[in-house]
Amino acid sequence: MQLNRVQRALIKFGVVLVVALILIKLYYPELTLLIHPSPNHQQELISLVHQHALSNTLLLIITIALLCSIPFAPNSVVCIFTGVCFGPIIGFLINWCGNIIGNGFVAVMIRRSGISDQVRQKQAFAYLTQQRFPTLGLTIGFIVPVIPNLLVNCAANGLQVSNQKYLLAVSLGTLPIAFLYALGGNAIFTMSFKGIAIVVGLFVFLCLFYLSLKRLRARLQN
């Protein structure tokens, strides 16, 4: 039985809601501290995080992977929260693993279901599938925040890249964003305006980099 758009949207909303409730239940003390951030609360937050078992860390990885596989789900919010709780290094590793697993799951699903005509008509899809070096193009697609991961995974399927090349592209491509979210979360909680400025600046740079590549490609074609 094929689900219509409303049914799919309701299922996605239900999944996100359940995940959000589980995270709120597990991390309620941390969330309470985040509502009123201060230098004194930072040490208390670190102590609370260290009390969490490995299973909770794995739950965050699974949550990020799950939200990464759902278009328009608030994956970035969880990645930032991870940076707040675990700091830029451990938070980055959690975000990175979750995003790699989530994108890998999406890629497998696309191989089984195929690419819709609606996706094929997207400009970003055409841009990614017409690159001279497919692996590099996919890597850039994963790096740039304005390109949905779903489109990049569809492009990978359309290009029929090998598993090794796909793993290389998704690993390199999700690395900067995973680190930026973790760094941004840590900077927000520690009230480091320098860190926040660096994160915002890097996001803007990545977006401008993508737009510059598009314009350069258009000029070369003309």
From TrEMBL:
The keyword Iron is assigned to this record: no
TM helices/strands, residue ranges: 9-28, 48-70, 135-154, 166-189, 195-213
Locations listed in the record: Cell membrane
Protein topology in the membrane: Multi-pass membrane protein
Entry keyword Calcium: no
Protein name: TVP38/TMEM64 family membrane protein
Organism the protein comes from: Candidatus Limosilactobacillus merdavium
Similarity comment: family membership: Belongs to the TVP38/TMEM64 family.
All residue ranges annotated as the VTT domain in the record: 74-185
Superkingdom, taxonomy of origin: Bacteria
Pfam families: VTT_dom (PF09335)
Keywords: Cell membrane, Membrane, Transmembrane, Transmembrane helix
GO cellular component: plasma membrane
